[in-house]
Structure formats: C-alpha cells, structure tokens
Amino acid sequence: MKSIILIGFMGSGKTTVGKILSEFSGMPFVDTDELIEEKYKMSVSEIFEKFGEDEFRKREEETFKELVEKDEGYIIATGGGLPIFLKDKSLLNKGFTVYLETDIKTIFSRLENDTTRPLLSKGNKAKKIAELLEVRGPIYKNLAHTVMNGKIAPENIAKTILLAFNNLEI
Ligand code: S3P
Prior knowledge:
With 170 residues, the chain is of the alpha/beta class. Helix content is 54%, strand content 13%.
C-alpha cells in the first residue's frame, strides 16, 4: 500500500493535517523529524549545531528512504527541506505526494514565536521565510502529485486528500 507523503514549508500544517489524516484513514502517522530525533537521540537543532546541515540532510534522506521502502502505507509528514535536498527525488513517487501550499504571512504568523527551527533562528525571520519560500515553492509544486491550499481548515484538507488517494487506490 502506498503512503501519503505531505510536503511543504515549515509551518504549512503537515503535522496537523497528517494527524487528522491518520485518524480518518487508520494509517499510522509518522513525522520524519521525530523519527530522526528518536533514531539519533538528539533534537533536530542539536544535529544542526553539532554536525551541520549537510549531515542532517544525509540522515534525513536515509531515514525517509528506510521508511518509504517499507511499503507499509503511512501518513508521512516530512521536514520542510526534505524534498528540496533529497538526492533521489524518485523516493517521493513511492507514495502519493501532496504539497500543502501556504503564503509568507500565514507561515510567519504561525512561526513568529517558534524557536525550534534552526534555519529561522538567526536574522530577520520574515525575510528568511520569504527568501526560502521563493526558492522552494516552485520545487515543492514540481515534485508533488497534487497541490492543496494549506490555508483552509485542516479537516477539509484531510478529507480532500483522502478522496483523491482512495480514487487512486481503486
Ligand atoms: C527544515 C524544516 C524542519 C526541520 C528542520 C529543517 C527545513 O521541519 O526538518 O528544521 O529545511 O525547512 P518542519 O517543516 O516540520 O518544520
């Protein structure tokens, strides 16, 4: 069975939508950042600090590959940089990949007080979000099998994704 893979910027709602999708579908929910933290017994910020971003990306791809190759049908919330840095982009075709599209304003309001994202921890947060989103937005769109408006109610996003997914599975 295929997994549903949620991709999108930090704060786009991947975890929130993913948990609802898991509830609606009965498929287990997995968050790649949480898996990495469990596997290496360290927070994402600590991995960035101690080993650098390149090492985090290596661990992230390895963890994601192991997960999708199990072919067990998970709801997967990916880290915002995963699809961008993934060397083997075809891994995203092991599931139904959905981009949760959001805008700078929404992301900023959700992450304004967040201190857990190393990429947004230094400098002007709004500027950093704008710069990253400009580069990443088209890549997410290009890699996804479908794009969802991440600003609507998460329950409605989950329902729409499941309908599309079930149609594919038939
Ligand atoms: C990152 C997003 C984070 C986490 C890390 C890097 C990124 O995950 O993987 O801080 O490069 O966008 P979330 O998208 O769950 O915040």
